Amino acid sequence: MRLQDKVALITGASSGIGRETALLFAQEGASITVVDINDEGGQETVRMVEQLGGRALYVRADVAKAADCQQMVAQTESTFGKLNVLFNNAGIMHSRDDNAMTTEEEIWDLTININLKGVFLGCKYGIPALQRAGGGSIINTASFVALLGAATPQIAYTASKGGVLSMTRELAVIHARENIRVNALCPGPLRTEMLMSFLNTEEKRQRRLVHIPMGRFGEAKEMAKAALWLASDESSFMTGAEFVVDGGITAAYVTPE
Ligand code: NAD
């Protein structure tokens, strides 16, 4: 097993990428702290992990709040004894996040607080725990929109993910000699609740789909497999990288018909 005896904390694990990653990491031998603000979904993820024979703990924490992030790490260490893998994955894409002229300040602040400050706070409290464990792997979920401008505007989201990417590089450099690796996962457009509710008409979906060389949206399970590689020792010489898993969208200038 690729994460035998490891302990992983995954934020945003009540659904989507976070839940699929919790299930895969557990199958690979890790104990999981499932963090979210959606209690029902989080408890369901725990049940699903347990059904697979794994160990999981649900902690309600709003990643935009320092006290909650401190608590999620403390509960992980008191329950499982250590922390080896920190997956800062929670994020939102607000339906009122639009272009610079129309996006309200409140939506900007909310998005930056969860998507960007949430990663900072996860690291602020998670890194000392990784140091106590002798090192580990941090994975921060960014997005392909950190690399490309999107035609469907979402200015706060895009800016937040750009911030995640640059923060990831600096964290990687600072902690490289401590046996702590920090990489950003950059998913392409996925067939998850988050994106499908943002691209809420067939026209909007087609507008995004036409840019993906593979001609389909990605799956949360495909991101979980990428996260597993980043979490495990198989990626031992990789840090500070943007790990792009996007069906070719960032490689394309014109996609095939
Ligand atoms: P999702 O909505 O299924 O999962 C996000 C989870 O984060 C939810 O369970 C939600 O309750 C939780 N969350 C939201 N705010 C939170 C907070 N303040 N504190 C704790 N938890 C909170 O969506 P997903 O597609 O699995 O998204 C996971 C990550 O992947 C996000 O960071 C997202 O921006 C990123 N991403 C998604 C796509 C996509 O196409 N779906 C593409 C690129 C990147």
Descriptive account of the structure:
The chain has helices at 16-27, 39-51, 66-80, 105-132, 155-175, 193-198, 202-209, 220-231, and strands at residues 7-11, 31-36, 56-60, 85-88, 136-141, 180-187, 242-245. It is of the alpha/beta class. The protein has a single domain (7-189, 222-245), classed as NAD(P)-binding Rossmann-like Domain (Rossmann fold, 3-Layer(aba) Sandwich). The chain has a seven-stranded parallel sheet, sandwiched between helices. α1 packs parallel to α2 (39-51). Bound molecules: nicotinamide-adenine-dinucleotide. Residues 11-12, 14-18, 36-38, 41, 62-64, 89-93, 114, 141, 143, 187, 189-190, 192-195, 220 line the site of nicotinamide-adenine-dinucleotide.
List keywords for this structure.
alpha/beta, Rossmann fold, 7-stranded parallel β-sheet, 45% helix, 15% strand, binds nicotinamide-adenine-dinucleotide
Major sheet characteristics: 7 strands, parallel
Q: What fraction strand?
A: 5-15%
Average of the residue pLDDT scores: 97
- Overall spatial form: globular
Please bin the fraction of helical residues: 40-55%
Give me the strand/helix succession: EHEHEHEHEHEHHHE
What separation lies between the terminal Cα atoms?
A: 41 Å
CATH class: Alpha Beta
Find the structural class using helix and strand composition. alpha/beta
Bound molecules: nicotinamide-adenine-dinucleotide
Oligomeric organization of the protein chains: single chain
Number of helices: 8
Counting structural domains, the number is: 1
Mind telling me the CATH superfamily name? Answer: NAD(P)-binding Rossmann-like Domain
Number of strands: 7
* CATH architecture classification name: 3-Layer(aba) Sandwich
Low-confidence stretches: none
Fold-level CATH name: Rossmann fold
Main-sheet strand order equals 3-2-1-4-5-6-7
